[in-house]
Amino acid sequence: MTPTTTSLKALSTAPFHPASSPDYVPREHLRRLQSQRLRDTVRRAYDRVGWYRQRMDQRELKPDRIRTVEDLALLPLTVKSDLRENYPFGLFAATMGQIVRLHASAGTTGKPIVVAYTRNDLDAWTEIMVRVLACCGIQPGDVIQNAFGYGLFAGGLGFHYGGEALGATVIPISGAHTDRQIAVMKDFGVSAICSTPSDFLHIIDRAEEMGVDLRKLALRVGVFGAEPWTEALRTRIEEAAGIKAYDIYGLSEMIGPGVAAECHVQQGLHLFEDHFYPEIIDPETRQPLPDGQEGELVLTTLGKEAMPLIRFRTRDITAILPEPCPCGRTLRRIRRITHGGDEMFVYRGMNVFPSQIEAALVAVEGTLPRYQIVLSRDKGVDQVELRVEVTPAVFSDRVSALEGLEEKIARQIENSVGIRAHVSLVEPHTIPRTEGRAKRVVDQRQL
Ligand code: DLL
Questions:
Q1: What integer is the mean pLDDT of 191-205?
Q2: Rounded to a whole number, what is the largest CA-CA distance in the chain?
Q3: pTM above 0.85, yes or no
């Protein structure tokens, strides 16, 4: 790439952390490293996981046949239900004596899956998380309030060890307890927060109720993820808290948080390609799609010991951005993920994404982009009810103001999304969350 004026400017303003060096490796070297790690991964999966061996044998595929990342397409895809069917330990490629940690994800749907880590896996994860935090502009000396849940959910501990290894001060506050979050943020001089966007929105409104102006605090950066959020929400968060808000993506099956993260350019998330090999496929035909085209993200672990996964279908919809990033990283970027493939719903024959509803809500004053979409069927006709939380100020207002608001939201959604929803306003902080995330779509039509 010939450096343009913008890229030079972008390079000179970004602080550099030595742990980020692998982010700038020449693509040719990266490719060789990926192929080498892929060979090891496939060999390990074949030798140690009966399920993988069986599937490769069925295709008369020996591990030696996979030499470079170009050969990946020969291998079968792995899906979430494969993990559920092998619950709990069926896909482990290490003995319990070598496994030092387990995490589990219930997500917002169904039966949990269990994931495992060897000591080397945990070290690699920590290193990746240092790169993530550095990518988001967090530096040694920053005070990080880690509001991701600690426990079986991988969010909390992933950020925790990454933050410490970076040389920042980590406050392991975990999720919920909004009042305490605000007190700690004020009293401990917190400069960076990590949480779900939903949880941070609670902090924003509660701070407003308590008369705390977040913009006047030391808080400078927020790293948000574990659920989809929109550009509109980013603007709202950045303005209300006076911070830069970065997107981080990850999933338990791969490692937890740390698969991809935004840099200060905030246009797409750099994928940590030396650990996770990305492909985009057409979810219907399952054929690989070229860079730039939207489809389902498929990831292969490169180096994971305890639980290597080959061509895992994430169900998350994105595209690999073909242009190099002005920040100078050679890691390719993926577009922000505003929905998972299983979150889209069909309403009276129309495809609708929750992110469209969210964008409409952010445009209506007095509402919070916290909502639940409930689908039902009445005499064979689809009905949609939208439950929306209102801001504390509006909630304590007169009933007539609330009624007007329902109509306003319904109109906004009709105009921008094209569906007529029955809107019900609910009290702030009442839409249920698990690990800080809201379940956005409840489909009662099959019942
Ligand atoms: O949510 C890991 C994580 C923790 C990521 C903290 C970021 C921060 P799971 O519980 O396995 O793992 O859920 C993974 O959440 O497949 C996506 O559908 C969704 N998701 C995660 N991050 C984002 C994001 C963690 N930034 C699933 N944007 C993934 C959109 C996201 N969706």
A1: 94
A2: 71
A3: yes
Residues with CB under 6 A from ligand 1: 105, 107, 148, 154-155, 225-228, 247-252, 256-257, 314, 316, 337, 340
pLDDT surpasses 50 at 238: yes
**Tokens at 39, concatenated:** 């060979």
Residue 223's DSSP bridge partners are: 194, 246
Q: In this predicted model, what pLDDT tens digit does every residue of 46-71 receive, in sequence order?
A: 999 999 999 999 999 999 999 999 99
Whether 13 shows a pLDDT value over 70: the answer reads no
Q: Note the pLDDT tens digit of each residue in 102-152.
A: 999 865 556 689 999 999 999 999 999 999 999 999 999 999 999 999 999
> CA geometry: angle at 337 spanning 75 and 258, to 5°?
70
Statement: residue 375 has pLDDT above 80: yes
Å from CA of 176 to ligand 1 middle: 18
Rounded distance between C-alpha atoms, residue 427 and residue 118, angstroms: 44
CA of 203 to the centre of ligand 1 (A): 20
**Closest of 120, 135, 343, 85 to residue 230, by C-alpha:** 343
Mutate to test the pocket of ligand 1, among 195, 246, 337, 338 (most ligand atoms within 8 A of CB): 337
Structure tokens at 159: 């950020």
- CA 336 to ligand 1 centroid distance, Å: 12
- Tell me how crowded residue 3 is: count the other CB atoms within 10 A of its CB: 12
Q: Which is higher by pLDDT, 194 or 443? A: 194
Is residue 5 pLDDT above 90, yes or no? Answer: no
* pLDDT tens by residue, 300-353: 999 999 999 999 999 999 999 999 999 999 999 999 998 776 778 889 988 898
